[in-house]
User: Which sequence fits this backbone?
């Protein structure tokens, strides 16, 4: 059993969180992670309206009685995101753990904290963690450049990013990016983190709603099969290396504008063509370098069991190295 300030904060058995993933963060996956002892997360922006989010929250509760989180996506969007409506619904439904990502959560901190909500804010670096702590968040998750989705504008990996962030704040830090097994959890704990946040590993599970073709692509992929796009528009995103993402890179190098890139990088395109239809080359979709560590598609409960068994074995081995006579 590995207990940390994070497990105590959110009331879970294991220091493992499934981070919010647009489209992928659905009730079945979130409930499976929570039921297995971690913290599952549904993503509000996946739901078209606040009432759709209400139904998704209730669906999670049909599947588990354990804690889970709702992600609030604060990234700029071509269409307005009804975060005020999402917050009203999650408060009405009694959700008390929220993950915020994208821009600063400051506009929403008062209503969340006044209602006793635990806020975990995703940051791309130490200085953002310091700001988040000042705003009153309860924990931060920091992601290195290996992460799928948005790693921030720097190219700093987790081996440096995690301890830099731990040294900069007093609140619990979760480590993300490049972590898919118990070795990653043990490494994160050694660097001072109090848990991990994972996305890519949980995509390749039986409970994940993504098309089977996507999961099979992930099994064949290596750590070299992702690319970072959208640097030119100030919103870097690590995605699967495929026909569309390579075309985006070519257009960016040629000076394409945001308007010219939108038809290719649209989330709706990824949802319809990739996640639903299984055409893995026909849209951009988030994928971290940890895809190179994924070799099967087990149930979430099996993933969690392996992670915890392996992490505890690694920590015991390291303990023997430090005290050979023990």
Assistant:
């Amino acid at each position: 059993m590995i207990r940390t300030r994070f497990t105590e904060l959110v009331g879970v058995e294991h220091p493992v969180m499934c981070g919010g993933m647009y489209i992928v963060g659905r009730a079945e996956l979130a409930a499976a992670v929570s039921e297995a002892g971690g913290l599952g997360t549904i993503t509000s922006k996946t739901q078209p309206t606040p009432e759709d989010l209400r139904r998704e929250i209730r669906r999670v509760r049909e599947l588990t009685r354990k804690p889970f989180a709702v992600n609030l996506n604060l990234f700029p969007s071509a269409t307005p995101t009804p975060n005020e409506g999402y917050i009203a619904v999650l408060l009405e439904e009694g959700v008390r753990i929220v993950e915020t990502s994208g821009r600063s959560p400051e506009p929403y901190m008062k209503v969340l904290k006044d209602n006793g909500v635990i806020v975990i804010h995703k940051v791309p670096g130490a200085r953002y963690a310091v700001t988040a702590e000042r705003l009153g968040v309860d924990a931060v998750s920091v992601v290195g450049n290996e992460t799928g989705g948005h790693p921030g504008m720097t190219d700093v990996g987790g081996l440096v990013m995690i301890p830099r962030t731990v040294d900069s704040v007093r609140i619990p830090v979760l480590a993300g990016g490049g972590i898919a097994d118990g070795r990653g959890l043990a490494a994160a704990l050694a660097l001072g983190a109090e848990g991990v946040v994972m996305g890519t590993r949980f995509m390749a599970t039986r409970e994940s709603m993504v098309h089977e073709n996507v999961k099979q692509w992930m099994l064949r992929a290596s750590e070299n099969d992702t690319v970072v796009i959208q640097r030119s528009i100030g919103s870097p995103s690590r995605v699967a290396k495929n026909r569309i993402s390579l075309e985006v890179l070519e257009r960016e190098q040629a000076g394409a504008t945001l308007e010219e890139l939108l038809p290719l990088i649209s989330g709706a395109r990824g949802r319809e063509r990739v996640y639903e239809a299984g055409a893995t080359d026909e849209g951009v979709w988030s994928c971290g370098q940890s895809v190179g560590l994924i070799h099967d598609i087990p149930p979430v409960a099996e993933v969690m069991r392996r992670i915890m068994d392996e992490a505890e074995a690694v920590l015991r081995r390291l303990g023997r190295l430090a005290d050979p006579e023990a």
Remarks:
- The chain has two domains: 5-209+295-322, 212-289.
- DSSP finds 14 helices and ten strands in the chain.
- The domain at 5-209+295-322 is CATH 3.20.20.70 (TIM Barrel).
